[in-house]
Design goal:
single chain, alpha/beta, Rossmann fold, 3 domains, five-stranded mixed beta sheet, four-stranded parallel beta sheet
Length: about 450
């Protein structure tokens, strides 16, 4: 599987998958009860009297799905459904697919993003089970922090190690300044504290560093390592912000239907783009892939509306840059008095700053220099776009100048050298329809052996 390796300093590196697939996992039959907590799931279903329950598996856990369903149905004496090939990210609750059978509950297996969900259906998480040597973790902690005075430690336990939470609490009970927290707790306070993250997910580490602002952030991967990605992330943000300012046509890609406020942030992005006199296209193609988005060459940049754990933001295979709603907000509605803290989760900053600067009726023409192309950009709200009868766009400037714009949409396609099949009406003599080949592709009837 292709992997992207990046370094946060000279001695620290993390491996991050750049696609959403993982090798298929086949669990030993004797371990299925422990890994998937089948008895616990059955009790949850019975206690709530659910009749139509869907089990949501990520692709790499699907080999175990049939056996899990078989055991669960025997315990419940009722039909249980499998959700595979989720519509978008498998870490989000796929209530859209569950609605196809009018399901009244979902049990979610595997990695979880903990994004605020827009689902209105009961759901139950069964986390993955990772291997963790708690004794080795304690030894690493003792060697790294021989003198813990002056530190306020928080050990933040990610989902793969929540099943070892009791063992971790017992191992660190002798330390008064060490607090053990689950990653799914709602009242986590990490600002100014020394945080040790028990997990390997890069996106979660980025969100922890920017959202909670810890004093020092460590992650544990056999031994403790300092993590700091501020410089790398901010450099990338600055590039994307400049790219958005340079762009004239922006693609808004719908990458989720399960995260709370996804419709609200789409409307927010559309409003900011329109107020800046730019053009946008709203794109819904299911799971965004390189091949799908390559069908829109007229776009200068994509902004993807998706969950905070999506790998698409780190994928370098796309032909155009991939931006976040945060980048759009900063590029098109920057406010120096109220700077935003970066986050992949748009719900983190959406409620903090939703007002728009007063440039809707502004007559001021603002010019600046692009840091990417070294060209002067003119940001003026005086230019409006009017539709003509021919379907092209007419740009009306303040001095009365008219110009035909064919830089996007049908006009862009009309200027391409290849235009598809031509009708040539009146030029090509029509022919009668003829019978084609019959049979199957493996061997047509008129095909010689």
């Amino acid at each position: 599987m292709p992997k992207l390796t990046f370094s946060t300093n000279e001695d620290v590196s993390l491996e991050k998958k750049i696609d959403s697939t993982s090798p298929p996992i086949q669990t030993n039959p004797e371990d299925l009860e422990y890994v998937y907590e089948i008895r616990k799931c059955a009790e949850w279903i019975k206690s709530n009297d659910f009749r139509k329950v869907c089990l949501q598996f990520p692709d790499h856990l699907l080999p175990d799905s049939s056996e899990v369903v078989f055991r669960l149905q025997n315990a419940l004496n009722q039909t249980v459904y499998i959700l595979g090939d989720t519509a978008y990210e498998s870490c989000c609750i796929d209530y859209i697919a569950a609605a196809h059978i009018s399901a009244d509950a979902i049990i979610h297996y595997g990695p979880v993003c903990f994004s605020k969900t827009s689902a209105n259906i009961p759901f139950f998480y069964i986390f993955e089970k990772g291997n963790l040597d708690v004794g080795e973790l304690k030894n690493n902690f003792h060697n790294e922090f021989e003198n813990i005075s002056g530190h306020d430690f928080v050990i933040l336990v990610d989902t793969p190690y929540l099943h070892r939470l009791d063992d971790i609490n017992i191992a660190f009970k002798e330390y008064d300044d060490v607090h053990i927290k689950r990653i799914d707790e709602h009242d986590i306070l990490l600002e100014g504290k020394t945080v040790i993250f028990l997990g390997k997910n890069e996106t979660k580490l980025i969100n922890i560093q920017f959202n909670f602002n810890p004093k020092v952030l460590y992650y544990y991967d056999g031994y403790l390592k300092v993590y700091d990605a501020r410089s790398r992330i901010l450099k990338k943000r600055n590039f994307l912000i400049e790219k958005i300012k340079d762009s004239q046509t922006i693609g808004i890609v719908i990458g989720t239907l399960g995260v709370k406020n996804y419709l609200r942030v789409i409307e927010r992005v559309k409003k900011l783009i329109s107020l800046r006199g730019k053009k946008y296209y709203l794109i819904s193609v299911g799971k965004p892939t390189v091949a799908k988005l390559a069908n829109f060459p007229e776009l200068d940049i994509y902004v993807v509306i998706t969950c905070s754990m999506s790998e698409i933001y780190e994928n370098r295979d796309f032909y155009k840059p991939i931006a976040t709603p945060f980048d759009i907000e900063v590029a098109l509605n920057a406010d120096e008095d109220k700077p935003l803290e970066f986050s992949y989760d748009f719900n983190h900053f959406l409620h903090d700053k939703f007002e728009t600067q007063n440039f809707e009726n502004s007559k001021e023409v603002v010019g600046d220099v692009s840091l990417l192309s070294n060209k002067i950009r003119i940001n003026s709200n005086e230019t409006t776009l009017l539709k003509s009868d021919a379907g092209s766009q007419v740009a009306l400037k303040s001095d009365g100048t008219l110009s035909l714009s064919t830089s996007y949409g049908a006009g862009y396609l009309a200027d391409r050298s290849w235009k598809g099949l031509e009708q040539n009406l009146g030029q090509t003599e029509p022919e009668l329809a003829q019978e084609g080949r019959s049979g199957i592709a493996q061997k047509y009837k008129n095909e010689l052996i």
